[in-house]
Amino acid sequence: MKKWMKPGVLLFISLVLIIPLAACGKEKTETIRVAEVTRSIFYAPLYAALTEGFFEEEGLTIDLKTVWGGDKVMTSLISDGADIGLVGSETSIYVYAAGTSDPVINFGQLTQTDGTFLVSRNEVEDFTWDHLKGSTFLGQRKGGMPQMVGEFVLKKHGIDPHADLNLIQNVDFANITSAFASGTGDYVQLFEPQASIFEKEGRGHIVASFGTESGHVPYTTFMAKQSYMDANEESIEKFTKALYKAQQWVDSTNSKEIAEAVQPFFEDTDIEILEMAVDRYKSQGSFATDPILDEAEWNNLQDIMDEAGELPKEVRHDELVNTKIAEEVIK
């Protein structure tokens, strides 16, 4: 009869057997690299998807980086430095018009209005758009969505941005807030929470919203190269599922709870400011409630680009937009 093994040996053998079994039972996760164009409370559904575990539920780990600028997001995608980009849909049109065998496809809409607010350096009583005439306006990058929507809204109110304003467009996207803070410009277009931060600090005053003036437009969408989407269909579907869950959660959740959920991405910003910013965006319908980028929004985008003289060519909705994934996810 064989002797029993010593307790230490038995424990070692048990661990050798148990650890591989535990590893086999653990679900594999996939890492997706996402490049966002800026860090803004405007993208609250994305941050909520991360903090509320919606991506994790789909077996995804998101490696999120901020690259500050639409041109830089597109460079990251084209050079395979990122798998998915979060940026304005106009960038996909620019790449397509330049000629490419691997177009960048819009598959999930995040925001559906402009996200900028008009901030005045001085307090303005009874503001009207005519107050801008003759002023120095610190604008956004030429050809980018903020600038094109800004010009669209100004023209709508009878203002020629290149004739009636001293328009500054040579400041890099990442440096616009610091340029205004240091004294450049009478007016500026700012995203939240920076607009509310300036207002709280007395550095500026929010006088109008470009989002309420411009109508629905695919302002910020998730996009990827066609080759990546073809090779990673299941991953894109899982990503879109997590996005849709987050959009529904944000739509049905109060601003305070949303602000608390996304605060880890804005550690230096007071929770009251975040709540105010979320409330502003929710009240003007900026957050898309589903990922579908419809044809009417796509056409509105091209109208705005055309008005700004930045539309290189007209592109059909079905050439650069994939709604099938989002439609299946919603079903």
Summed up, what is this model?
It holds the Pfam family NMT1_2. The chain has 331 residues and is α/β, with parallel strands linked by helices.
CATH architecture assignment of the largest domain: 3-Layer(aba) Sandwich
The number of distinct structural domains comes to 2
Distance between the ends:
65 Å
Largest sheet: 5 strands, mixed
What are the segments in which pLDDT stays under 50 over at least 5 consecutive residues? 1-7, 9-26
Instruction: Supply Rg.
Output: 23 Å
In terms of DSSP E residues, the strand content is 15-25%
CATH topology title of the largest domain = D-Maltodextrin-Binding Protein, domain 2
CATH top level class name of the largest domain: Alpha Beta
- Overall spatial form: globular
Residue-averaged pLDDT, rounded?
92
Number of helices: 16
* Structure summary, number of beta strands: 10
The helix fraction, in percent, is: 40-55%
Strand order of the largest sheet: 2-1-3-10-4
Q: List the secondary-structure elements in sequence, H or E.
A: HEHHEHEHEEEHEHEHEHEHHHHHHH
Helix- and strand-based class? alpha/beta
Q: Considering the protein shown, what is the CATH homologous superfamily of the largest domain?
A: Periplasmic binding protein-like II
Organism: Mesobacillus persicus
GO cellular component, one term: periplasmic space
Main location: periplasm
Keywords: Signal
